[in-house]
Amino acid sequence: MVEDSKNKTGTENSKDIEQLIEEISENADMFHSFLKMAKRLKDAGIIDLMDSVSKDYMPTDIEFLGKFFTSREFTTAVIKGGNTMTAMLYMLLSEQNTDLIRLLLYNSEGFSDAIVDGVRKPRKMTFLSLYSMMKDPDVSAGMTAMFNILKVFGKVVNEKMP
Prior knowledge:
Layout: H1 2-7, H2 10-26, H3 28-43, H4 46-56, H5 59-69, H6 72-92, H7 95-106, H8 108-120, H9 127-134, H10 137-160
């Protein structure tokens, strides 16, 4: 592009500049929006971050970063991550879901202790021992919940997955 401007006459350059000014005037609202967005990025420190990254890395690294952030794989990962986050936020709209998640997380130490204890000190499992465990109302409730989850999981995967 620099070579092109060197080869052009002064008249051709001024025509290019006039055409550029005309296009900017016709799209002033777009440029104004772009400048507002750039100001917000600057105020948030993103422009400064990008500037420091470009100073700290060699040009080949910057080229790699540019290719990486504009790659199809990165874009796909961002879109999939965004879709997952949207689904999680939607899930958290339900008071029942947030109460259940809170309950599980506040009792996570009990879950991890039970898992470690079960692995380190396994009991012999016979049909009779399983039957007696199933008589425990907490075990029965947990097993019912797990079977209900498995049923919904199977149904959803069969209906929604290709």
